[in-house]
Structure formats: structure tokens, C-alpha cells
Specification:
Length: 334
């Protein structure tokens, strides 16, 4: 008999376009996990209501994030790819978990405090209980592994607390969810301006989006900061040069990287050529993803099928868990 696969769950925010940092930091891991685990990947549309109550753009954003993830290699046949709002069991579990979550601990959450600072006029209860909803997403499938970045570690710790509290109060239903990544491969993709990593909120011109057209990719790469080059053989690289090499390692052939490394070490490197090469390799990497994503985005029927199939898989798993939950809580009066 086939061994039952371990369960992986993660949520994707339907805000913004995917960039190269998302690709190497998250999506590529999902694509690898889909081969080894039972995966639930969800578009967190309900979470987005905590900060974006206006739903006009939601459909476009949900479609785009689905299309981009599929274009990157996520296979809706292999994983459950679904929308949070399509799985009503989430809301039920969220309600039960809210009784186990204390106001004090919720108020201490770093992301909550950030949001209060950013939007002091919209400090709603949904924002306060954001980590409770996230916990419901995860433990609804009794997931063990949650591929997320560093910024989600506190939410994961809270998810473990809420799951444990439930288990202690009502009986063992949930495994402890853990953050999971292919450790050594959690790559930070540096930004093109030599400062920090690629991110959607900081410098738009220093971030490469998977939706950028070829000329925009070239323009962004050619604008990356360089200098007049090393004067001593084998000098250490300044950060902004190191970053260009790091980006090159992600998308260029090994012999190309080696050639420019040795040019650098011999002080014969020409940064114009280096950036031209990087620009072309970026174009070759990004443009097929962009084209696939555009094609998928225009195929509403396909997207509907994906969401339906995903929701069905997610609901099957959710229903089984909720039976156990109601049983454990003593809510089975019939
Ligand atoms: N809070 C996550 C983020 O901001 C998104 C998310 C929602 C999530 N539900 C989740 C992540 C469940 C992991 C598991 O990126």
C-alpha cells in the first residue's frame, strides 16, 4: 500500500504581482513540494478583507495570483489550489478557535501592531484575529508543514499554541504545524539597487516582476548600480556587485557566471557586458512565465475549473477534520 503523504498547507496573499523574490523564496519550494507531499495551497482572499474591504479588484487579483502560480509550475492536478472563501469550514473553525485566543496575545502580534500603525482608522476585529484565521486555514487540513518566510514565524508559533490549546481542552485532533522550507535553499533575492532584497513595497525599479515585459526587464537590469571596477586582483566585491552576481547565479549558465567571476578577479570585468548578459538571461527566464500567466489569465473557464476542483479537494479534507472537531467539542447532539 502506498504510504500516506504528509500534509503541507500554505496561503498566498492576493495582493500585488509576483516578483523574482517570491519565485525563488516561495513558489519554487511549492513546486518541489507538490511531488512529495499532499499539498493545499490557498489564495487568502478572506485575509485580504482585513485591510482591503473594497472588493472591486479582488476577482482580478485572485485570477492573477492563480495564473502566476500555475505559470511557475504549480500543478492544479497535483495539489489542491483553492480560494479561502470557497471553503466555508474555515469560518466555522475560525469561530471555535476565537474562543481559545486571548486578546492580550493577539494585541502583541508584530504584524497587528504594524497594521495599527499603518491604518489607525481601520483597527477591526478581523485584523486582530488575523492569526486565528491563519491557524484555521492550516489546521483545517491537519497540516504538519507550512512553507512560509521568516515574516510568518510568529503566526506559526501562534498556530501551534492554538492547536495545542484545542487539543488540551477537547482532545487530540491536530498535529503541531511547523514552518518548513528546503533549508539551505531559502534564498534571499537581492534587489537591483544594492539595498536589501526584492520586495513589492520598496523600490519598484529595483524589483523584477514576473509580469515585466522584456524591455522593462532590460531597463531595470541596466540601471543596477555598478562602479568603475576592481583595481586589485581578487578584491572582495562591494555589496551591489555581489548582488548582481547572486542574481546571475539564479538565472545564468554556470560557465557564464564563472567567466564573469574570473574577469572580476583579473580586473578585466566590463560591467556593461555583465549587465547585458544578465538582462538577456533574465528575459529568457521571465518571459516564458509571463506568457504562460497571461494565457492562463485570459482563460476564465480554465481558472473556474481550477478553483472548483481545488475547492472540492479542500472541502473533502476540511469536512473530515470538522467532524472530528465537533465530536471532540461535544457539539454532536443528534
Ligand atoms: N499570512 C500569510 C501572508 O501574509 C498568508 C496566509 C494566510 C497563510 N493563511 C495562511 C500562510 C496559512 C500560511 C498558512 O503571507
Amino acid at each position: 500500500m502506498e504510504k500516506k503523504k504528509e500534509i503541507v498547507m500554505s496561503g498566498i496573499r492576493p495582493t500585488g504581482f509576483l516578483h523574482l523574490g517570491n519565485y525563488f523564496g516561495a513558489v519554487r519550494n511549492y513546486v518541489r513540494m507538490q511531488e512529495e507531499f499532499e499539498c493545499y495551497f490557498m489564495v487568502a482572499d478572506l485575509h485580504s478583507l482585513t485591510t482591503h474591504p473594497d472588493t472591486k479588484e479582488l476577482k482580478t487579483n485572485v485570477h492573477r495570483v492563480l495564473a502566476e502560480n500555475i505559470a511557475c509550475g504549480l500543478d492544479p492536478e497535483k495539489v489542491a489550489l483553492y480560494c479561502q472563501s470557497h471553503v466555508y469550514e474555515t469560518s466555522e473553525l475560525y469561530l471555535y478557535l476565537n474562543m481559545l485566543a486571548y486578546k492580550g496575545e493577539l494585541e502583541k502580534t508584530v504584524t497587528f501592531k504594524d497594521k495599527v500603525r499603518q491604518h489607525p482608522d481601520n483597527v477591526n476585529a478581523g485584523l486582530l484575529t488575523y492569526p486565528v484565521l491563519q491557524t484555521a486555514d492550516i489546521i483545517l487540513h491537519r497540516a504538519k508543514y507550512v512553507p512560509v518566510g521568516k515574516d510568518q514565524e510568529q503566526h506559526l508559533e501562534m498556530a501551534r499554541n492554538f492547536a495545542n490549546r484545542f487539543n488540551h481542552r477537547y482532545g487530540e485532533v491536530f498535529p503541531e504545524p511547523m514552518a518548513f522550507n528546503y533549508g539551505d535553499e531559502l534564498i534571499k533575492v537581492p534587489s537591483l539597487d544594492g539595498a536589501g532584497k526584492m520586495s513589492k513595497s520598496i523600490n519598484q525599479y529595483a524589483t523584477l516582476y514576473l509580469s515585466d515585459d522584456d524591455n522593462l526587464i532590460r531597463k531595470k537590469v541596466m540601471k543596477a548600480k555598478t562602479d568603475s571596477g576592481p583595481t586589485e586582483p581578487n578584491s572582495p566585491k562591494p555589496d551591489y556587485i555581489e548582488n548582481i552576481f547572486l542574481l546571475m547565479k539564479l538565472v545564468s549558465a554556470t560557465d557564464v557566471v564563472e567567466k564573469f567571476e574570473s574577469d572580476y578577479n583579473n580586473c578585466t570585468v566590463r560591467y556593461g557586458d555583465l549587465k547585458k548578459q544578465l538582462a538577456e538571461d533574465m528575459v529568457a527566464f521571465i518571459s516564458p512565465i509571463r506568457e504562460r500567466a497571461e494565457h492562463i489569465r485570459n482563460d476564465e473557464k480554465y481558472l473556474r475549473d481550477v478553483m472548483e476542483k481545488g475547492a472540492e479537494k479542500a472541502r473533502t479534507s476540511a469536512k473530515a477534520t470538522m467532524e472530528l472537531v465537533r465530536q471532540a467539542m461535544g457539539l454532536n447532539y443528534f
